[in-house]
Amino acid sequence: KEKMQDCIAPNLLEQLNVDDIELSEIRSKKIQKIKKLVQITENESEDDF
To answer: How far apart are CA 45 and CA 43, in angstroms?
Structure first.
């Protein structure tokens, strides 16, 4: 039983790390989209004046 636990624990940690990496990638993509949207709206408001 102890050997089984030793095998499972590292795999769970690896899975968590993978999830963290994917989440951070998704987050950075969302931030980039928001920045682009902000730039567009700023440019439009400048054109109006």
So the answer is: 6
1-49 pLDDT, tens digit per residue, is: 556 555 666 777 787 777 888 889 999 999 999 999 988 888 776 665 5
CA distance 2 to 5: 5
Roughly how many angstroms between the first and final C-alpha of the chain, as a whole number?
72
Stated pTM of the model: 0.50
Provide the CB-side half-sphere exposure for 4 (13 A, CA): 1
The SS3 call for residue 45 is helix
- By residue count, the chain amounts to 49
Look at the block and give the residue holding tokens 């989440």: 23
Q: Which two tokens stand for residue 24?
A: 């951070």
